Structures are given as C-alpha cells and as structure tokens.
Amino acid sequence: MIEQLRDIPLFSALSNDSWHELSHYMVLVQYPKGTTIIYADKVEPYFYILQSGIARAYIDGENQQITFWFGESGAVLFSFNSYINNSPGYENIELLTNSALTRIKLTDLFLLYQQNLEIANWGRKIAEQELIATERRLIDRAFKGAAARYHEFAAQSPELIKRVALKHIASYLGVTQVTLSRIRGAYK
Amino acid sequence: MIEQLRDIPLFSALSNDSWHELSHYMVLVQYPKGTTIIYADKVEPYFYILQSGIARAYIDGENQQITFWFGESGAVLFSFNSYINNSPGYENIELLTNSALTRIKLTDLFLLYQQNLEIANWGRKIAEQELIATERRLIDRAFKGAAARYHEFAAQSPELIKRVALKHIASYLGVTQVTLSRIRGAYK
DNA sequence: GGCAACATTTTACAAATGTTAAAAAATCAT
DNA sequence: ATGATTTTTTAACATTTGTAAAATGTTGCC
C-alpha cells in the first residue's frame, strides 16, 4: 500500500535507500469522511501524506470558520506550529471524504532529518513548495478580483469544485458565500 | 564583518564547523539606497542575508506596484523562483536604505545542501520560518480588518513605519493608500 | 531660500463586498 | 420516499473600500 507513494512526485527524488529508510517509519491509516485529524491548540504528533481523498485546513473564528487550505492526493498535511515550532497549532484539518493517509511520527521524522542528508533535503523541498504556493496566493489576492480567483480555482481544481461545499471555497477565496454566489450567478 | 552574522538567530543553530563551511562562500556587499538587487523575470544567482538596512519585495502590475514583503536586518532575501525552481522570478527586491548584505551563490549553497547535513537542515528551517510567516499573513487578511492590520504592523515593526513610504505599506497591508490614510486619520 | 519632484491627505463619488433574512434547492437519514 | 437538515441562492440595504483629482505637506537639490 505504502509503495504507491513512491510514484508521487514528492517522493520520486529520493534514492531507494532513503525511500526505504523513510517508509520504514510510515504507517497507512484510513478514516471516514468528516474525521478531524489535526486539532487546533494541540501539539499534533504526526506528519501525514494524503494518499486518496480531500482535506481542508480551517480556523475557527468567533463568527466564522475560515478555510485556508485544501489538499488532494499527494498533499502533505500537518500542524504547522507542531511541525515547525513544536508548539500547539492554530488550524484544524478535516477530511472531506473517506481518505487513506500515510503518516509518520514527527519524532521519527526529525530523527531522520538529523541522520539522512537526502531526507533533510526532501523536507526542505516540502517547505519550499508550500512556501511558494502560499506566497502566490497572497499575491493573487492583490492582483486578481474575486471573480478571477474563483474562475481560476475552478479551472485548476475541478475535483475540489465538484466535491467541496461552496461555503468552504468562499472563505478559501477570501469572500463571503453571498459574494461567491453572485460571482457564480453572473456567469449564466 | 561576516562574523557578525554568527549572532543572528538564523545562524546560531549551526556548529562551528558548518558555520565555517558556509561562511567560506559568503561575501559581504554594500549598496546604496534605491538599489535593486533582485530583478523579476531573471534567474538571480545569489542568496542574500541582510545585515543592515531595509528591503522590500514588490511586483510590478499594470497600474500598480504591490509590495508584499519587507526585510530588516537578519532577513534572508532571494528570488523565490530562482531559489526554489531555478526559473525566472516574479519579484523585484529593492533596498530602501543604504544596506550591507552577505551573499552566497546559489550554486555554492546548493552544493552545500548536498554535502552538509546541518546546512541542509538550516535551509529547511529557513523555508519553514518563511512559510509560517506567510501563511499567518494570509490568515490575518481573513480575520482582521484593514485598521487592525495597520495598528498591529505599526506595533510590531516600528522601524518600518518610521522609514518606509506609506504607499508601500498600504499595498503590503492589502489596501489602497487612500484607505490607509483614512485609517490613520481616524485615530486623531 | 525656493523650486521641483514626490508623498500624503482630503474630497466626492462609484463600485464592490458585507450583512441579514428569507426563499429555494439539494442532501441526508430513517 | 419523505421529512428534517443543510447548503445555496436571492433580495434589500448598509458599509467598506476603491477611483480620480485636487490640496497640502515633505524632501532634496541647486
């Protein structure tokens, strides 16, 4: 089962040796739709790779719940503060469909980072890819109107548009659900 | 001169050996206010650490120039796409004051990443810190109004408020200069 | 000092988005 | 299937933010 991961671009850069070292610590888990696998305000001990399914990260505000990230198969999934600062996180991560994930304990992963140069660089690449994607979203907010953001999201993530509730997509795009509905309506 | 860097938190995690290996490739450079050190649409060959001064990263749009990052001393500074994807960047980086920087060629840095485990993990930490900071800004846009973002920015970055043109701060905060002016006016 | 260039604020108006509430549509569970 | 629940859309109105242009303030330079 875990061997499937080997085909994900994320892992293809690893040598066979490093892949075996890493995968030795990985365990396949499956959860039903609706499961929350990362809780805010907790130090979460696992780093996950989504093998199949859809996930979202969100923050519970006073009057609102803001979704700020979606993951599809191949995505990495972890509590930022737990992973980066070993402190409680701010985000919840919920599975929007039945999902299969591979996970590794952060303590094991951190040991590998201190032992294996390839894996350390693999971890660096993960952070860098997330970084450039996040910065791009921040910049898109400045340059593109809400309608353009929606249409591009729909074009680039057809699976998500089909299967994710619009209220979640609205907050992901940085608008209210009413505004998103207007954008969609303007198309007909 | 370069020894000063050793005190920056960014470098304090490195062992003496790794520090010497890294600093061997680093060169101190100084530029006057107004110098652009990273150009959009170019593959930029250097990774910089800002030793003193203030820098901003911006994108030239059709009608607007959007500043999306500020750096003060200790900040790392590079073309994201050059560094991460070895392809031309989207951002310009300009020095807003006379500045001293230390730089290392990306080719040298990448070699070190492949040779030295500590330096590879140091590079991982850099990306992770930038990542968490960028995500926090994206989330702040959703939860905080423009006025709150301004007041918090002013509180956390007193140097920048003092020395950076408000038009740059406005786009950094995600509002027009007129709106920023209204926010500031509302305080008196 | 005084002019020129640039930065900031102000004003009036326009456009986009938010808020609240209700209706319509879709989905879920028994 | 059908009633209950949730999601999405629609409507009316309020608010925020944007745009353009003029007024004011600031900075640097000769």
Notes on the protein architecture:
Chains A, B: InterPro entries: cNMP-bd_dom (IPR000595), cNMP-bd_dom_sf (IPR018490), RmlC-like_jellyroll (IPR014710). Chains A, B: Residues 10-65 form the Cyclic nucleotide-binding domain. Chains A, B: GO terms for molecular function: kinase activity. Chains A, B: Keywords: Kinase, Transferase. Chains A, B: It comes from Pedobacter terrae. 2 copies of one chain form a homodimer. The first copy, chain A, has 188 residues and is an alpha+beta fold. Chain A has a domain at 2-117: Jelly Rolls. In chain A, 47% of the residues lie in helices and 22% in strands. The first copy, chain A, contains 9 helices and 8 strands. Chain A has helices at residues 9-12, 16-23, 80-85, 106-115, 117-143, 146-156, 158-163, 166-173, 177-185; strands at residues 27-31, 36-38, 46-52, 55-60, 65-71, 76-77, 92-95, 99-105. Chain A has a 4-stranded antiparallel beta sheet. Chain A has a 4-stranded antiparallel beta sheet with strand order 2-7-4-5. In chain A, helix 8 (166-173) packs across helix 9 (177-185). The longest helix of chain A has 27 residues, at 117-143. The first copy, chain A, is globular and about 55 Å long. Chain A starts with 8 loop residues before the first helix and ends with a helix. The mean pLDDT of chain A is 92. Chain A binds chain B through residues 59, 61, 66, 68, 80-81, 83-85, 90, 113-117, 120-121, 123-124, 127-132, 134-135, 137-139, 141-143, 171, 174, and chain B through 59, 61, 66, 68, 80-81, 83-85, 90, 113-117, 120-121, 123-124, 127-132, 134-135, 137-139, 141-143, 171, 174. Chain A binds a DNA duplex (30 and 30 nucleotides) through helix 9.
